[in-house]
Write a structure and sequence with these properties.
The structure holds two protein chains of two kinds.
Chain A lengths: L5 E6 L5 E5 L2 H7 L2 H12 L13 E5 L13 E6 L6 E6 L3 H7 L2 E7 L6 E6 L2 E6 L8 H12 L5 E5 L1 H4 L7 E3 L3 E3 L4 H7 L2 E7 L9 H16 L2 H9 L2 H10 L20 H11 L5 E2 L9 E5 L9 E3 L3 H9 L6 H14 L3 H16 L18 H13 L3 H6 L3 H8 L9 E2 L2 E2 L9 H9 L20 H8 L19 H18 L19 H9 L5 H21 L16 H4 L16 H15 L10 H7 L10
Parallel strand pairs in A: 1-6, 7-12
Antiparallel strand pairs in A: 1-2, 3-4, 3-6, 4-5, 7-8, 9-10, 9-12, 10-11, 13-14, 14-15, 16-17
Helix pairs in contact in A: 1-2, 2-19, 2-21, 7-20, 9-11, 11-12, 11-13, 12-14, 17-19, 19-21, 19-23
Chain B lengths: L6 H4 L9 E2 L8 E2 L7 E3 L6 E8 L2 E7 L1 H17 L3
Antiparallel strand pairs in B: 1-2, 3-4, 4-5
Classes of the chains: A alpha+beta, B alpha+beta.
Chain lengths: 647, 85
């Protein structure tokens, strides 16, 4: 059955391996994937532990529907305490790893301890082994995967791997699978590195029994139709995610030169159509690929067209890569974006964090806070393409003073650099903001301020807020499955109604992360994509579990509150500039200077923002002063006895 | 046991083809470029946009017509700064 997969506890210090079934009662409370990971983390991570301590558990999982007959169920989730923020560490990626994990018999891996030498974990049809990784250590993301496939004599082995950046404990190193599928943000690759764990290799041929296979397949046709007819997915299947950056830059919603501007001017060479051309020229017409069971195919393939890495194969770029290595650093060269993308994928590092930190360092250099001596002779001015590429390498190798400092993440780096450098840092909870500029969009500003893993767009961003959808359409979306009769506005500059949209989106994203479905297959970028009313059918036909849309909503709420409990335990308070649900002062003080006419002059109104946040807390049932879930909330959600240590 | 059509499915009827909205927040009206047209101007705010056609009925804004929109933005910024914004 789809519910028969087990959780494995792997201790790298002792070599002890134990597996357990996952009780249906736990499934019904947390589903799987990110939600159940949150339960496991809260139960297995000792309070206040250092993120690089062997006691910090690294949890890897597949969502409940992964590997079934449901579409777009490719997602792998990874969770631990973050070495970047000291709060929740969590990342999610597509590819082919998690279906293979389920076919090998497991849904969740809880990895504790630290190996005394580099190791990898080999999982195959119910068996788990810890093996020597001496020959893999130091290898790039793709080289390590090919090496282990050769060692195991099976080209179909799928891997979750940390690259050289993770080995060197760059605090925002990714876990990766395939070429470019990245579990980015919050440094889960560094946690792998700290455990001397290079890689997890899986191969499985165990069937997943589907509860109602005929109905599951039949319903999936409807699901596919819903997904493939959406205009946003048709666009994504041609241009990939770069179309998002292009659309946002058009009206002035991207961060340029750190935070000085909000639109990259004359950006034609880094617009999505340009990357499409390069993929066509270097890979051919059929250059779009997909993850497991996906019909959208948003992953472009290309070879670097010029420069020192000419001819190297890579996949992407993503909209966040355009942000990292074009707009944030003031560069307008496709080659810089593609080369930066390639290097980050090979080192296994989060380009959102890295691009943002390089742009911060550039502003510090511009202001004289960093000198050419500090940069190791690099002319770190905005728009210097070569400097960007050099800095990527220096951070991942940690081979210069500035590279080593930036590898520690923004807040630690600001402490080392001093001289008011922190006031130029664009972050929430110690995690750098992605490339977007939320000064004109209060809903998105609230989203990044309150997201559970730091400044982030994949936890609660109501992106359709940018589409000027008519109020009746918004009401249909946001009044289901829970009634809502408060205000809603088609204008993305408004404050009223936005807390509910963010709250709604937070439950929506948690639900897909529990199920293992890609966010491009739900109400994220398209209003007509599946959500709470659609998922019960998919779950029932594939697993036999019955839920109403409202019950799924409650599960999502419960899982979000587990994450909240973890963050509160690790020190989150609402107004803490380092660990709170608050934006940096620049959002409130510096107006936007570029973009569409109605965006110019925009900045976030502090008072209105705080009112939005209070309203958002009320929807959650969180105390407005402490930000913590109230006793009543915990009881309502059945998590008032956590940690319960049931699993 | 399930509703015939979900809310998201019913919203499919609201999809529009051959048009998009002006990205300026107050211009809620849709812009309808003629098939194959490479630029389109918003009659309300004067901004001008480069258009690409992903399919014959699926136009997309590639980006601003830079010279036009930068000039509009410059004037607006002057206004805002005069008001002390």
């Amino acid at each position: 059955m789809a519910l028969s997969r087990r959780v494995a506890y792997i201790d790298l210090s002792t070599g002890k391996i134990e597996t357990k079934p996952i009780p249906v009662e736990i499934r019904k409370k947390f589903l799987g994937g990110r939600g159940l990971d949150a339960y496991l983390l809260y139960n297995h991570c000792p309070p206040g532990v250092d993120a690089f301590s062997p006691e910090n558990p690294l949890i890897v999982s597949a969502g409940l529907l992964v590997g079934t007959l449901a579409s777009a169920t490719s997602r792998t989730h990874t969770m631990a305490k973050s070495p970047l923020t000291g709060l929740l560490g969590s990342c999610n990626m597509g590819g082919f790893f998690s279906p293979e994990l389920r076919w090998a018999g497991f849904d969740h891996l809880v990895i504790k301890g630290k190996a005394d030498k580099p190791v990898y974990i080999w999982i195959h049809n119910g068996e788990i082994e810890i093996r020597d990784a001496k020959n893999l250590w130091g290898k790039s993301v793709t080289d390590a995967q090919w090496a282990v496939r050769e060692e195991l004599g099976d080209p179909d082995v799928k891997c979750l791997v940390c690259g050289p950046a993770g080995e060197k404990l760059v605090r925002y190193a990714n876990v990766m699978t395939g070429v470019k599928n990245a579990g980015g943000r919050t440094g889960m690759g560094a946690v792998m590195g700290s455990k001397n764990l290079k890689l997890i290799a899986v191969r499985g041929t165990m069937d997943i029994k589907i509860a109602y296979p005929k109905e599951a397949l039949e319903f999936n046709k409807r699901f596919i139709e819903q997904i493939t007819t959406a205009k946003v997915n048709q666009t994504m299947g041609i241009l990939g995610t770069p179309f998002i950056w292009g659309a946002t830059n058009s009206w002035g919603g991207v961060r340029v030169n750190n935070f000085q501007y909000n639109q990259l001017l004359f950006a034609d060479d880094v617009e999505p159509e340009r990357f499409h051309e390069i993929s066509n020229e270097t890979f051919g017409k059929y250059h779009m690929a997909g993850c497991f069971a996906c019909q959208v195919h948003c992953r472009a393939r290309y070879r670097i067209p010029d420069g020192p890495y000419k001819g190297c194969y890579d996949e992407g770029p993503e909209y966040t890569t355009q942000g990292a290595f074009a707009s944030e650093v003031g560069c307008t060269s496709a080659l810089t974006v593609l080369t930066g993308n390639y290097l980050c994928n090979q080192y296994g590092v989060d380009w959102l964090e890295l691009g943002s930190l390089i742009s911060w360092a550039m502003e510090l250099y511009e202001k004289g806070i960093l000198t050419i001596k500090d940069t190791g002779g690099i002319d770190l001015r905005f728009g210097n393409d070569e400097a960007v590429i050099e800095m990527i390498k220096h951070v991942c190798e940690r081979d210069t003073w500035l590279g080593d400092v930036l590898a520690e993440g923004g807040l630690r780096a600001a402490e080392i650099i001093g001289k008011d450098s922190e006031q130029y840092l664009i972050h929430v909870k110690g995690m750098q903001n992605l490339h977007s500029d939320e000064r004109a969009t209060p809903a998105l500003a609230l989203n990044i301020a309150t997201a559970s893993r730091g400044s982030d767009h994949l936890r609660s961003r109501p992106a359709i807020d940018l589409y000027h959808l008519p109020e009746p359409v918004l009401r249909k979306i946001y009044s289901s499955p829970i009634p809502y009769d408060g205000p809603l506005s088609s204008d993305f500059r408004e404050y009223a109604g936005k807390p509910w949209q963010v709250f709604w989106q937070e439950q929506c994203f948690m639900a897909v992360d529990c199920l293992g479905i890609c966010k491009y297959h739900t109400t994220f970028l398209g209003a007509t994509l599946p959500n709470f009313e659609d998922w019960p059918k998919v779950i029932y036909y594939n697993t036999g579990l019955e839920f109403t849309p409202q019950e799924l909503w409650t599960i999502a709420e419960r899982c979000n509150n587990m994450e909240r409990l973890f963050n509160i335990r690790e020190g989150l308070t609402p107004d803490d500039p380092h660990k709170g649900d608050i934006l940096v002062d620049r959002y409130f003080n510096e107006p936007a200077k570029r973009g569409a006419p109605d965006v110019i002059g925009a900045r976030i109104d502090r008072e209105k923002f705080l009112k939005m946040r209070a309203e958002f807390y009320r929807y959650h049932g969180w105390d407005e002063k402490t930000g913590a879930p109230t006793e009543e909330t915990l009881k309502r959600l059945g998590i008032d006895n956590e940690p319960s240590h049931l699993l | 046991m399930f509703k015939d059509k979900s809310t998201a499915e019913t919203l499919k009827s609201t999809r529009t083809y051959g048009q998009f909205r002006c990205p300026n927040p107050t211009c809620l009206d849709r812009l309808v470029p003629k098939p194959g047209e490479k630029t389109v101007k918003c009659p309300k705010c004067g901004t001008e946009w480069r258009v690409v056609w992903l399919k014959p009925d699926l136009p997309r804004i590639r980006g601003p017509v830079w010279e036009t929109n930068i000039e509009i933005a410059r004037k607006k910024l002057e206004e805002v700064e005069k008001k002390g914004g």
